[in-house]
């Protein structure tokens, strides 16, 4: 098992999967447990996670996401949707507009790192038609899809991509 820093360093966007290797239920359960362990505003967990294993539905999600083929190829797709109404009950408009989206995003990020720690790969997808995804998954009214994660065993080892230097991103304020 890798330590946290190694897990983060080994996280890459995987766009080719071994379609014949399903994700074991124990690993899926562990990933989902890590997602729901993520911090959330007021501990409300103002999000839902849809686990999509059905191939036909994954192909429909692929189409809703601009025909990105790895979504249909991966054995699983996790869809994270914000629940603005749940957050608004405690935090009003700011909760609805921001905190629920942050909650779903943090949960997805935790899931993505857990996927790597479990020896698998994923790709974060943010480009998709919100309404189509919500309809495909029959999400309750008001739920807002935030991220799709394709999940499976990599059939490729992606190259490291360049990152901006810390000095370009970080400002120390005294």
Number of helices: 7
Distance linking N and C termini: 38 Å
Question: Into which percent range does the helicity of residues fall?
Answer: 40-55%
H/E element sequence: HHEHHEHEHEH
Please specify the SSE layout and strand pairing:
Elements: H1 4-9, H2 25-36, E1 47-52, H3 55-64, H4 70-73, E2 76-82, H5 84-117, E3 121-125, H6 130-136, E4 144-152, H7 166-169
Describe this structure in words.
With 174 residues, the protein is of the alpha+beta class. It has seven helices and four strands. It has helices spanning 4-9, 25-36, 55-64, 70-73, 84-117, 130-136, 166-169; strands at 47-52, 76-82, 121-125, 144-152. Strands 1-2-4-3 form a four-stranded antiparallel beta sheet, sandwiched between helices. The termini are far apart.
Briefly summarize what is shown.
With 174 residues, this protein is α+β, with helices and mostly antiparallel strands.
List keywords for this structure.
174 residues, alpha+beta, 4-stranded antiparallel sheet, globular
